[in-house]
Structure to design on (150 residues):
């Protein structure tokens, strides 16, 4: 993931956690999307970072997930997810990272309330933050999985 130098500096200054690397990248070429007179373009500096894989695990009983087959590995919790309606983490598994990839949701980044406040305070753009209970990914319109009965 590429982040601006401004984001990288603010992230480190505020002591946030969950991003690793912070290696500078060299921008070799910039393509303008709009036609405009040729003039030198000022390109901000960027860093490449990776997001940590946290110990936080998706609560398979409370998260409304539809899967193709049951989870077989309780460590990675990997399976094919067909639909998800809301995210609930298992109590006691989150270790306080500000941005992380939870076990059971490959490719999904989860951020803390502290990170959300950080983004708003600094006015960072080009990211969409969705409250965990409102997160929906359901391309086939399967609807949420039924809640477990007591």
């Amino acid at each position: 993931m590429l982040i601006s130098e401004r984001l990288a500096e603010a992230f480190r200054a505020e002591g946030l956690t969950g991003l690793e690397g912070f290696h500078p990248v060299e921008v070799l070429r910039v393509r303008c999307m709009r036609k405009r007179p040729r003039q030198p373009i000022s390109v901000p500096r960027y860093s490449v970072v990776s997001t940590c894989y946290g110990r936080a695990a998706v609560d398979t009983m409370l998260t409304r997930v539809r899967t193709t087959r049951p989870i077989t590995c309780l460590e990675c919790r990997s399976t094919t997810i067909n639909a998800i309606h809301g995210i609930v983490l298992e109590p006691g598994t989150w270790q306080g990272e500000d941005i992380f990839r939870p076990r059971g949701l490959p490719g999904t980044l989860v951020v803390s309330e502290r990170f959300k406040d950080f983004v708003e305070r600094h006015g960072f753009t080009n990211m969409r933050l969705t409250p965990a209970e409102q997160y929906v990914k359901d391309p086939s319109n399967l609807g949420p999985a039924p809640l477990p009965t007591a």
In short: The longest strand covers residues 19-25. DSSP finds two helices and nine strands in the chain. The chain has a mean pLDDT of 87.
